[in-house]
Amino acid sequence: MSIRTRVRQWPVLRQFTTADHLGRGTAVRSAHTEELTPRTRTADRMVQSVCPYCAVGCGQRVYVKGERVIQIEGDPDSPISRGRLCPKGSASEQLVNGPGRVTTVKYRRPFGTDWEDLPLERAMEMIADRVLDTRARTWEDADDEGNPLHRTLGIASLGGATLDNEENYLIKKLFTAIGVVQVENQARI
Length: 189
What we know:
Low-confidence stretches: none
Strand order of the largest sheet: 1-2-3
């Protein structure tokens, strides 16, 4: 590439030799920039959703290509967030596409040193058995004075921000129904 060609491609020179004197349009665009297309344009479909983090409920537009999420943006039609997302909401695409995302059930046996994969059905059975066993062993029907308690203090739940409001609501209902008192959700974890 000659020096003259390189000088013509220099944005400052184009800024002063074209109608774009403020350098806000075509004068500052490179050939590479002209070839770029937004990821949202290549999507097969757009699905409206709600951010899974805090309880605000910001609207999201989830762009899908094939079966893969390729972009998540704020939904300008949302009366709550009007197209804006916080840093966590803006990065929520990483929840499904992050390279460190674990997609299998991991289990480490008591006194074990290695994690092993378990089938989901087996893991769910193990959890249910342990919840029922703990509830039976720690159940308090009444206090020393005979006042009814109908609770267990042997189980507690601390929910995190990657569960949405509906999931946390159902978890609260489930644990309350089986007598768990200590149920909390913290949006910043």
